[in-house]
Amino acid sequence: MKVLNIRKIRNCRQIDIMYDLEFDYEITKHFIDHLAKIAACEYFPNFPKPFFRIYLHEHLMIKGSVGNSIVRVVVLNLIYSQSVKESIENFIVHAEGYTR
Fold this sequence. Notes:
Radius of gyration: 13 Å
Number of helices: 2
Oligomer: single chain
Number of domains: 1
Distance between the termini: 8 Å
Order of helices and strands: EEHEEEEH
């Protein structure tokens, strides 16, 4: 999977920093399993569109749903802001290592 686009999301509270990562294919359960190798993953298969949430370290949450090609990265703690970019880059490298 390749990341096609990274877009910073602005919200009305202006306190959260969020990014959307767009992949070249739709997310599958196998892709979620691949992502779960780098961090604890919560998977909710009983939703109309199965949903997942991954926490990386103490400062990032990544969430999305099966069938979408976009995941949202939420920065949870700005205290760790220097390592946020590195964590997102490491996540992208891991995600792009997935082969269908």
